[in-house]
Every structure is written in structure tokens, then in C-alpha cells.
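INTERNAL AUDIT FORM
Audit reference: QA-55
Scope: verify that the stored structure record matches its stored sequence.
Auditor: D.O.
Record contents follow.
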Amino acid sequence: MSNGTHYEVLARKYRPQSFSELAGQEHVSRTLQNAIDSGRVAHAFLFTGARGVGKTSTARIMAKTLNCERGVTHEPCNVCQQCIEITKGTSTDVFEIDGASNNGVDDVRDLRDNIKYLPSHSRYRIIIIDEVHMLSTNAFNALLKTLEEPPEHVKFIFATTEPHKLPVTILSRCQRFDFKRVTLPKIIARLREIAEKESVTITDASLALIARKGDGSMRDSLTAFDQVLAFCGDTVSDDDVGTLLGTIDRRLLGDISAAVFSGDTQSVLAGIKQVDLVGYNMRQFCQELIEHFRNLLVIHSVKKPEEILELTAAELEDLQKRSLHVTALDIQRRLTLLIKAESEMAYASFPRLIVEMALLKATIMAPLVPIQELIDKIKTLETAAVHTPALPWETARTAPAQPLYSAEPQRTSPARPSQPAAVVAAAAPKPAGGHTDWGRFVAFVNEKEPLLGSVLEHGSPLKQENGLIEIGFPAGSYYLTAAQDAEFIADVQKMACAFGGGDTVIRVKSIETGFADAPLSLAEKKKSDDEQHLEELKQEVANHPVVKEAQRVFGGTITDVREF
């Protein structure tokens, strides 16, 4: 590298001086060279594209080609006086104007007056206006007439990053060339060439980091390379480049994605912590993760990913190995989570938490079964179920309803078909004055007075005699308080009289919870019966052949059984 007092930055030192040195814009170079060789050079050109892709450099090369002393050829000689002056920016016949600082109508009028004169010692007067979209409306109007009918000795070359801001009247009078973003391999190749000329020791991985920092701009990549060399000197290490440029090591992205697919939450959170410790922007980290997962998805989706992805050969090989044990669907589901997380981070106060939550969700995400595999398994179950007994819940739907509860065993005496209905009715037992059928009595009350019945369901029939019913309720319960009300007792007595046909005394007593001598209340009896029924149902379901086959086929477990 230069040891002199004056240091020329790499972007200026290695600026393209001929069409052959213009990296990544071969389509522009070829078209311009063909136009020069055929004598079809337009009077106005418009170069559009992102920053640092070679627009102004191409304009200078074009100016040297047209004014070279060795003749108009498709490559300048770069040794004659004209080429040297244009390269240094001292030519009196080539004007480079910054549209941002010379955007007034007076500036354009002065320019229009000057171009009337013939070039002093060149073939053409060449006007290069950079960032031409910055000109004012009046300046464009002043330029329009000259641009439509320029003198034969004048050529205009406009450069802009925002062509949509130019008036249509200007666009229609120019030949437009769209410059592309320089691809990653071309930037790396150019950086390697410069590194060898500067005697710098650097790995391809570091060059790739520098090239990515440029984001398709050759000038920005050279500027980043300059910064690295200023920090590291002639020997550059990968760690220094990552620290200086604030970029994430691609290996860390690969390790985090591998931890996600393997379900290793510990390694995922450790990787995020490492990113946070170096002070890297969490949203930028999320964006790089999105790009990483997108690369994996492309590798799974196309036959020639190298034609789609901007990756080095080593990076592509590493990603191909990492993608062997995952499916495109697995990648796509996690990519969706990261894209959602990135959008939420724009106004978030805790960006690290958002990334952690998204990656944890991606890590513990259950794998999906392909739909065709599910269909095949269902067909297997259908085949297995052809000769198996009905499921318990199917039987339950058609089973006859059972009585709520009876203190005595239910006795049925079906009549003969020829027996008259009146005889059957007469054969039914009539309740005594005190009645002993507590369940039937509560059902009767429920039908007439549901509020009274709902309280009686929680009482235990302690004593049932002719003319006396003694009911126990849990001490301290709401039902005891309600049952001790005088009006409640009076209403129950009326119900008992209507049910049994005689006067009945109602007594309410307080009993301790779990009192052994007290029979179960109807509510307790129903709860106990339901629990027993559910347990029996669970056993029946667990032992059912169809359920067992489903567990075998799908590899699942029974988590809940419900009866409908």
C-alpha cells in the first residue's frame, strides 16, 4: 500500500477507466460500444441506477471514448492528453455539473449559452449532469429546447438514482440505460483483485462480508474495504471484519437455524445473547435471519440455486448441507414467524424479546404431517373399524334416559298386552302420608317450584316417617341458610301435603361435611354417578379397537373423553 503523505482512497484509485473495467454493467458497455462502432451515438443519454454502480464512471469513459485523440473507438486509450484531462476532471470541453447544487434556472441558462460555442480542442462538448432529478421545474424547462435540438458538437449525459422524478418531456428525449446492482460474486472478484494489488492478506469469507456491506454498490464496498484496511493493515482477520463492520457471522446464523430445527431452545437463546452482547441491531439481525431462511427455502425449491442466490461457493455448499434434514414446509412456517416479528419490531420497546419469542415459537413448533399421509392413515382406520363394535359415545346417544335418583330400588311390573290400562294404574303403589320416596318428591317439587327443588337437591334425607321429613344440609353452606328460612319451610310443607295427601312436618338440620350416617344428597349422588360413569367410559374408550388403532397409526395419546 502507499506509504506517501497523500493517500488516495480505493474508490478513486481503482475507478474504472475503460468499458472493460466496468464490473457488472456489461449490458450497458456492449450497447454503448456498438453505438460508437456503428456511428449511432445519440445526443442525450440517461444513466439510472442505485448509488455506486458506475453511472458517473461510465459517463467519463464515454466522454473519453468520444474525444480520444486516437479516434472514436469503443475503448479510450487513457494515455493521450484528452483522456488524461477528462480523467483528472480538468478538460475544458467536458463539464461535470452537480444537479443538487446547480439546480436553478440561471445555472441552466449559463450552460445553454456556453454550449453554443465550438469545443476548444476536442470533437465534442460533453455535459455530464449528476443527480439530474434535483433540477428545478424552471431549470428543466430552460433545458428542454436545447435538449430537443442540440448543436451537433454537444452531447448530454445525465445520471440519476431517481428517474421517476424526471419530467416525461426530458425522458422522451434521452436514450435510457438502467444500471443493475453489482452481484456479490463480481464485487468479491474485484475486491480480491484489488487486495492482490495492494498486497493484503484476507480470506474470501471477509471479502464476502465486505461485499455484502456494500449491498450491490461497488463504491460502497470499496469504501468499506478502505475502512477495514485502515483498521487491520495488510493482514485482515475474519473476526476483525465482523466487529468493525457490525455484521453477523454467517456461521452464527447457520448455528441458530440448526438449533431451531433441532428443538434446542438453550442454543437459540444463547445465540441471541451473543448477538446482543456485540451491540448488533436486533431488527437488522432479524432481517439477516429472514434472508438466511429464505436462502434455505430457495435451495429446496429450485434445481440451480446458485443462479438465484448471491452466495459464495463455500456458503452455498454449507447451506445445502444444513438443508438436508428439513423440508420446505418446515422452513416456510418459520420464515413466516420471522417476517411477522420483523414487522412488529418497527415500533417495539423490546426488540430482543420479540426475536426471542419468535425463535422460541419456531423451535418448539410441532412438525406437520403431509395431507396425503393423513388421508392414507384415515383410510387405514376406516378399514380397521369395519368389523369393530360401536364407540361408547355412539351407544350413549341412543340409550334410554335413566331416572335421576331413587331412595328405593326402582321396581317395574310391565303389564301383559291384554291387561287393561286401568288395572295397570291401580296396581301402581300409592305414596303413604309421610312418603319415603325422596327422589320422587324432589322431582315433584322441581316440576312445581324449581327454586325450592334446586335447594332440596343438596339436602340429605335424614329421617322419613309418616307426617315427618328431616333434611340435613352442610354446615355453613348457602343451602342450609336458605332451607332454615321460615317461608322456605312453609312452602316445602305445602309441596309435601300436595305430594302425599296429608300434613307433613319439615325439619332442617345442620350436618358436618362427610358425616358418615347421612345419606348422599341428590346432587352428591349425581356427581358420584357421573364420575363413575366417566371413568368407565374412559376405560371403554381406551380399550376400544378403533382407538387403539388410531393411537398406533398416529402415535397419539388420549387426553380427554367427553360424552355428547
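Auditor finding: record pair retrieved intact. The longest helix spans residues 522-542.
Action required: none
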